[in-house]
């Protein structure tokens, strides 16, 4: 594989994506909401009133339903400190997973469908680019921007959380180690999952909206993860992150094999016409 040629393809595709306001909005907006607006909104309710129906009362129930292994991490904290820690460490993690997945849906669907619509994919099929170089370039183009945006929002989130909660927590407390695993391993794996799934089916579809619906097959379980946690069925702690890493890595391996079989020049040509 020619790395220089592959990077040239990535640069070309990125220039196409940056011209699309919808793609930029799909990448930037979730990162902004997750990293700034949501934590500031929730932490504005501290100090807490724990009466039923209030945010504090709801979070108190959220903490009471926690598994014992996670509740031990709150030992020695005041009620307000436990609220801040539980929400910022456990409750908000699924939002970042949803953010990278939804952004990857937009970049993969828009980028590949546009190239198919504009006919630029045809010229690639008759260029010296190999099948592997084309596949790698598409994966990098569609996966790296959402992952970088999520990492940036994570850094902003950490600054906002530590600054806003400093008077309550008395110092830096975020991020815990399992968040670093989630951001450094799980987020790229999820971005890769959405990209591969969307690219595999994109040639059969006519519009970016159709391709996005396929990519949303990954987003929907993540939304279910969030609501399941809100209802106390599971919590986004170290054990869940480890299980998700293993499951998503296995799915990516399977999808990579399918994508490698799909992105063969003669199959691409057959599906274009």
Kindly list the characteristics that best describe this protein:
273 residues, mainly alpha, 80% helix
Task: Give an overview in words.
The chain has 273 residues and is mainly alpha-helical. The chain is built from twelve helices and no strands. It has one domain. It is elongated. The two termini are 27 Å apart.
Bulk shape: elongated
Tell me the Rg in angstroms. 21 Å
Helix tally? 12
Low-pLDDT stretches are: 48-54
In total, how many beta strands? Answer: 0
Write down the overall mean pLDDT: 75
How many domains? The number is: 1
Euclidean distance between termini CA atoms: 27 Å
| Beta-strand content | under 5%
Give the topology, please.
Blueprint: H1 3-18, H2 21-43, H3 55-64, H4 68-71, H5 79-91, H6 93-118, H7 120-125, H8 131-169, H9 177-202, H10 208-230, H11 238-262, H12 265-272
Helix pairs in contact: 1-8, 2-6, 2-8, 3-5, 5-8, 6-8, 6-9, 6-10, 8-9, 9-10, 9-11
